[in-house]
Amino acid sequence: MISLVVVSHSRTLAEAAVELATQMLHGPGRPHVEVAAGLDDGRLGSDAADVARALARSDAASDGAGVLVLLDLGSAVLSAEMALELLDPAVAGRVRLSDAPLVEGLLAAVVTAAGGGGLEACAREAAAGLRAKSQHLGAGAPGVVAGAAAPAGPPGVASPEGDGGSAAGGDGTPSAPARTAPTASVELAVTAEHGLHARPAARLVSCAARHAPTTTVRLRNLTVGRGPVDALSLSAVATLDAQQGHVLLAEADGPSAQEVLAELEELALRGFGDEPGPAEPLSDVEVPVPAVSSEPGVAGSGLEAAVGPSLRLHPVLESVEDHAGTVAEEHQRLHEAVAGVLERLAELADRARRHLGQGEAEVFEAHATLLRDPRITGAAHARIEAGEPAAAAWAASIERAAGAFADLADPYQRERGQDVHSVGDRVVRLLLGADEPGSTAHGILVVDELDPALAISLDASRVQGVLTRRGGTTGHGVLIATARGVPVLTGVGDRADVPDGTVVAFDARSGDLVVDPEPALRQAFERMVDDRRRERERALRHALSPAVTTDGVRVRVKANVSSLAVARLGAALGAEGSGLVRTEAVFAQWRQAPSVAQQVEVYAAMARVYHPHPVTIRTWDVGGDKPLPFHPVAPEQNPFLGVRGLRAFAEDPSLLLDQLQAICTVAVDHPVAVLFPMVTTIQDVRWAQEQLGRAAARAGLEAPPPGLQVGIMVEVPAAALGIARLAQGLDLVSIGSNDLVQYTLATERGNPRLAAWSDALDPAVLSLVRTVADGAPDGVRVGLCGAMAGDPDLAGLLVGLGVHELSASAAAVPLVKQRLRTGSAAQFVELADQALACADGAAVRALVQASLPTPTVRLSGPLAAGTAR
User: Fold this and answer.
1) Distance from C-alpha of 435 to C-alpha of 457, rounded to nearest angstrom
2) Are 172 and 166 in contact, with CB atoms under 8 Å apart?
3) Residue 406: how many CB atoms within 10 A of its CB?
């Protein structure tokens, strides 16, 4: 007897339809009916892996008689088609997908099957399931001819139209079905910062797949002349090398050609999902509550160093040894392995969504799309047909797909080749019965590249750190591991190619790596790691408590914020508000300026996160090393000394006025402060206040809200030396330490060749900090942001110089607060006085190090024999 599978968005609907159909049966003969409906968490949706498992069980129950699939609509159809790709072709050939109405078709098919009807008879009766209803109502049902037999389609599809699925080309890419409508086309601009990389490409593929197989889409990169490629192939789309600024040509054939092109055009206008509109910064992200456990909990939580035995993890793709079964057995093994990895990726995506946010979850969803790529799967199955074992066939197909990324121009997209390797490696491991990577590691894991699945599934109580031979800091795996607090040092090359068990030590803060350190250096490193761990645990235990010195002076520690997710992290880690919202970073990837309403939404959400603490919003800080796409600045010979910050709006303040209007609107109901950057003269301050008054009027207010505090950034020596005049009548000033170092020492920030001359602890810089603290008018708060504020080692020194509050990176807040609790304000003042008398920054650093409860190992000294940098 045939079996049936019901595929639906709703499990409740599917089970009710099955119950209704089976109530029509009498006697012992009942067909086997499986339900593949809904998602595991109860949400509406369908899952291809779940459908594939149901089809496999049903085929076994039918004993070769065949399986008829009834579906509702939309993604259920797509999931069923994808499920067929996961099955052994012999099994898939016994499956029919019916376009019959779900309830009526199921009832007719169940009754026919129970009466002994075969697969074709059941499919025919299901297709005619609306006949009784249409005759009763006196109207013909579209697509149904009363009494007509529905012709059997080719393997995989049962349809009154008789159209089957698409055949595979020689490389595994589906061939386009016969054209049923004139070709239509549209040009698509690529605006996302990193071009059409994995996640936006996956969204494009999903859009095209919704209209397959009756409508096909081909893509060309008009800018560089690549293509055409099948829009259903994620790897092919990614290798178009579509970068920001490129133009794609999308051509569609089929009845839904105009519809799919309109959807693609709308998707392109949103940067293929990478343009962060209001939904992106407002996405719901679960932030881990500070806790003490064996697993590091937050990014940059203070450890950032590791020492232990090395454990090399070689990708299994490099050495695949497998024994082949029959061709049918190898097809089935590959189908089952792919289905198993799809299931695991769904689990990892759910975990990432709960703990890291939707953006990281989409990494795993994109990997799942790669697994369904017909160019990869088709090539692997073609190799199996030629006699190769499943593991070897899959590995070769993956290497071919990954190799296409090597020649891409954009380094970010070149790194996406590691995503292909990651997916391929997991499938091969499942085929060979190998352990999941990292599950039993203890020590320092040495990998070729750190893929996202490994990063999120590491046993962080055993893995003390990770070294990567290649790959940059933008890799998804590195970002995820960092977010979990696992120390990672990337791109060390063959320096880490040492026998397993060799002791290695590294400090991610400095980038230092030591292989087989001498006993004295190893002990010093181990003490540093232990001290950092204990200090971090104390800091997390007391993260939500205020920072009060031993003599009762309270110092407010706030967080630098570049998104709502970072704001939530800061609040969870004890930040008492935000000392700096970097608005140019919040909206950095927008191609059009956010409206006033969009800015109000974002700023108000951040204010709610920190209530009742204030949120300090810096106005657009554009220019220098901070480009803003929707407010370009003309090229300059020396942009750091040019049109930066407030200066960029002197000729046209409209964008600034929009921002100030949004700030005034939010400040009516929330505690908010505004900071104006790159202020050097009293005229700058007066002009900024005039614009604030104009913006308040635009917001319908007689004046800026009384609760809105106003301040300026102190980033240049002129502002520091003239602080008494500039800050008159203001509420706060914030010292931007990164720029103050740059302008005081004439060293371009970020230029590694100037590192020897760019020392934040130079007494000249510290003297200007003391000048601002001493010269600010009474009642004006003095804060400091930048790298210095996020360094726990410097917290006491800065307070000793007279700074009232610090704004650090969100993850550094607990440690900065903890350091301030370990000393008295009087001690900090004494330390600052001694620092100002030092000859240079090196002497200040030595003085500070001697005062710390957890000294850092300096690898540049005599102990550093064997250091690799």
Assistant:
1) 12
2) no
3) 9
Cα distance between residue 869 and residue 365, in whole Å? 36
Residues 6+ apart with CB under 8 A from 429: 316, 435, 436, 437
Q: What token pair was written down for 514?
A: 């030591």
Specify the pairing of strand 512-515 against strand 443-447.
unpaired
The pLDDT of residue 315 is: 56
**Amino acid identity, residue 859?**
L
Contact 34/63 with Cβ under 8 angstroms? no
The total number of residues written for the chain in this structure: 869
For the entire predicted model, the pTM comes to 0.56
- Cβ contact 735:760 at 8 Å: no
Q: What's the CA gap between 357 and 568, in Å, rounded?
A: 11
Catalytic residue among 122, 664, 785, 838, which? Answer: 785
Structure tokens at 4: 């049936």
For 225, other C-beta atoms within 10 Å of its C-beta total 7
The pLDDT tens digits for 595-613 are: 999 999 999 999 999 999 9
* 213: preceding bond cis by omega (within 30 degrees): yes
- CA 326, CA 385: separation in Å to the nearest integer? 10
Active site residue 122: no
Which two tokens mark 439? 């599950």
Distances in whole angstroms, Cα of residue 669 to Cα of each of 198, 278, 615, 707, 837: 41, 20, 12, 9, 47
Task: Find how far residue 243's CA is from the centre of its chain.
Answer: 19
CA torsion 824→825→829→832, rounded to 10°? 80
The answer to whether 349 and 364 have CB atoms below 8 angstroms apart is: yes
Report residue 426 as tokens: 């997991």
pLDDT in tens, 355-375: 555 555 666 777 787 787 777
Q: What is the separation, in whole angstroms, between the first and last Cα of the chain?
A: 69
For residue 387 the two structure tokens come to 């006699």
Catalytic residue among 32, 476, 670, 804: 476
* Beta-strand pair 488-489/305-313: unpaired
Q: In what order do the strands lie in the sheet with 216-221?
A: 184-189, 247-253, 216-221, 226-230
Contacts of 755 (CB under 8 A, 6+ apart): none
Q: Which amino acid is at 660?
A: L
**Spatial CB neighbours of 142, under 8 Å, sequence gap ≥ 6:** none
Backbone angles phi, psi at 151, to 5 degrees: -65, 145
Q: Is a pLDDT exceeding 70 seen at residue 578?
A: yes
Confidence check: pLDDT of 834 > 90: yes
Q: Which of the given ranges, 38-47, 267-276, 304-313, 757-766, has the highest pLDDT on average?
A: 757-766
Give the C-alpha separation, 111 to 177, whole Å: 34
- Whether 664 is catalytic is no
Closest residue by Cα to residue 631 from 612, 646, 616, 614: 646
Q: Can you tell me whether residue 578 is helix, strand or coil?
A: strand
> Phi and psi for 321 in degrees, rounded to 5?
-125, 120
d(CA 405, CA 579): 41
pLDDT per residue as tens digits for the range 513-557: 888 889 888 888 888 888 878 888 888 888 889 999 999 999 999
